[in-house]
Amino acid sequence: MGIQTGDSLSYVEQALIGFLTSTLDGTGIKLVIDPDIICEIINKNLVECEDLTLVNVINALIKAVCELDTRVTALEDDFAALEGPYTIGCLTGVTSTSGTHAILQATITKLCSVEVALNALALNVSTNYVKLADLNSLIASYLASVGTTTKYYNRMVPYAVVEYYGPLTGNFDATGAGLGDWEKIYLCNGNNGTPDKRGRVPVGATTGMGGGALNPAVDPAVAGNPAYALLGTAGSNTVTLSPTQIPAHSHSATATVVDNHYHFVAASDSTGSCDIITSTDPVARAGSCGTNPAYELRKSGETTATLGKSSGAQGTIDVSVAIGSTGGGLAHSNYQPGLGCYYIMYIP
User: Fold this and answer.
1) What does the DSSP assignment read for 95-106?
2) In a 3-state reduction of DSSP, which class is residue 207?
């Protein structure tokens, strides 16, 4: 209060009154507070470069409380928004109206399961796959580890048939088995467990392959289409057509009829004698028998004829027409242009 010995009574009274007055409004109460216990929200509302009074501290507290209230109110609004409804997506065990805690816990559980799956995937990838950038070096390292080899089967896929245009002598024995560097490689001649590819072209099997419905052009259920099982065969190098396989057609024929028979007619005059008139020359011969002859018919080989008018008999002529056959019944070629090769197979 600034009172010292020897001060006048009026001064002391004035000092006491001033102190009490400052005490009532707080300005005279000086506070000493450890700075370490003053939090940031209060400290930023205290005065600087002055002694702290009760008023300063109370003002700072009031401002801090109001600021915290504002924050809490905002948080309440935020928490209200957090209470959904949520789009839960792949979460399990919760609904769209579940509380924030339940949703958060379900999210954590899902993330943990995803992490486990990713770790397993990463382990699988690292164990079974390599980076493309590392592939060449890994292959080179592997080849170096197995040493140099000239065996051709190391470059082939097992049981895959491939064309071969090289020599046979020295590379394969009489059965078709490979020799030397051709070890485990066989000619596809039906020996040594190989398919007999001699004179045959490959065709995709129609059975045992799976997949969707077959195209009608190759479906064995359609008449005329063969069924191909593994190692099944069909087809022929030549085909002989049957009558039902040739186009419908017709033949024309011409018949010539030659009539070589004769009618013999005798003409009689008043004496009863007359020359014999044949159908080949009736007019010329009839003139010797008078102007009004009576005719008679005499059969071939007879020497007499019955007098009287008669006419020649008309005979029936039978004509038969035969159409000669043609064609030799030979087969025609039924193969496409090809190029001969040897087929080989690697059998482990």
Assistant:
1) -TTS-HHHHHHH
2) coil
Least confident of 105-109, 180-184, 288-292: 288-292
Considering just the CA atoms, what is the radius of gyration of the chain in Å?
65
- 176 part of a folded domain: yes
pLDDT tens digits along 277-313: 444 444 434 444 444 444 444 444 444 444 434 444 4
Neighbouring residues of 221: CB distance < 8 A, sequence distance ≥ 6: 214
What's the rounded Cα separation, in Å, for the pair 91 and 200?
A: 61
Whole-angstrom distance, CA of residue 27 vs CA of residue 171: 116
Q: How far apart are CA 130 and CA 251, in angstroms?
A: 77
Provide the number of structural domains found in the chain.
2
User: Residue 186: pLDDT band by 50, 70, 90 thresholds?
Assistant: very high
Token reading at 125: 């990838």
Query: Under the phi-then-psi rule, with left for phi > 0, alpha for psi from -120 to 50, and beta for the rest, what region is 32?
Result: beta
322-342 pLDDT tens trace = 777 778 889 999 888 889 999
Range with the poorest average pLDDT among 47-56, 249-258, 271-280, 321-330: 271-280
- What CA–CA distances, in Å, run from 7 to 10, 16, 190, 282? 8, 12, 137, 205
Give the residue from 345, 332, 343 showing the smallest Cα distance to 199: 343
The answer to whether residue 128 is domain-embedded is no
Greater model confidence, 280 or 170:
170
The verdict on residue 323 lying in a domain is: no
Phi and psi of 214, rounded to 5°? Answer: -75, 150
Domain end, chosen from 21, 50, 80, is at 80
DSSP 81: H
Domain end position, chosen among 80, 101, 129: 80
Domain that holds residue 76: 9-80
**59 lies in a domain?**
yes
